[in-house]
């Protein structure tokens, strides 16, 4: 990979890693609460819809999802190498394509929430 | 070249099993799949929200309400804390040392600052979500 590209991918990895380390335990805990049936008030349709429809909510959600999906993609690429898959170009194309799809979907859904 | 160099036999798929540090490294790196899973789960939630119908949001919440998901989320939470969040805080002073004049800020200060910020951010998210 070209050095210029590598810096961009590594920057996304580092930013996403920091963000997920701080935020994902709380996110997983919220999903755990949902699974147990104790859906907190803020996750009822009215409240979460208002949050996701606000510009601040949209911006927060997009930044978190965008950085996280690229962070995961970069690390899964390295994990594939660690588990003996040596077709790096193929793996890189696959994971970065999935990350691009995730980014576009997140942007699209946030855009149409109003 | 007639020389035949010795190449240490090394498995490409199970090399990390021979050393405890390598095992921890691989266990840590596997959290990337959890990041991907929860990112796409959240995007599924956004898809349900964007339809603008409370029924689809309720359906999104309802299909996750089973014992298997409780166990999965519980396991994921512990795994994520011990193999992503805490190691990330531990390595932060190595990745971003803070220099003050001639000296460096002690590692412990940076690590403790991370934990404090983490507690505050978690409290903020729980407050926004109406948990606390």
- Structural classification of chain B: mainly alpha
How far is it from the N-terminal to the C-terminal residue of chain A, by CA? 40 Å
Report the radius of gyration of chain B as a whole number of Å. 22 Å
Number of domains of chain A: 1
Based on DSSP secondary structure assignment, what is the total number of beta strands of chain B? 2
Fraction of residues in H or I helices of chain B:
55-70%
How many DSSP helices of chain B?
Answer: 5
Task: Name the assembly state.
Answer: heterodimer
- CATH homologous superfamily grouping of the largest domain in chain B: Fumarate reductase/succinate dehydrogenase, transmembrane subunit
For the largest sheet of chain B, list the strands in their spatial order.
1-2
Provide the CATH top-level class of chain A. Mainly Alpha
Report how far the terminal alpha carbons of chain B are from each other: 71 Å
Q: What spatial form of chain B do the alpha-carbon principal axes imply?
A: flat
User: What is the residue-averaged pLDDT of chain A?
Assistant: 93
Largest interface: A-B, 57 and 53 residues
Tell how many strands the DSSP assignment of chain A holds.
0
CATH architecture field of the largest domain in chain B: Up-down Bundle
Question: What is the name of the CATH superfamily of chain A?
Answer: Fumarate reductase/succinate dehydrogenase, transmembrane subunit
The helix/strand order of chain A is HHHH
CATH topology of chain A: 3 helical TM bundles of succinate and fumarate reductases
The poorly predicted ranges of chain A are none
Key terms:
heterodimer, A: 114 residues, mainly alpha, 3 helical TM bundles of succinate and fumarate reductases, B: 5 helices
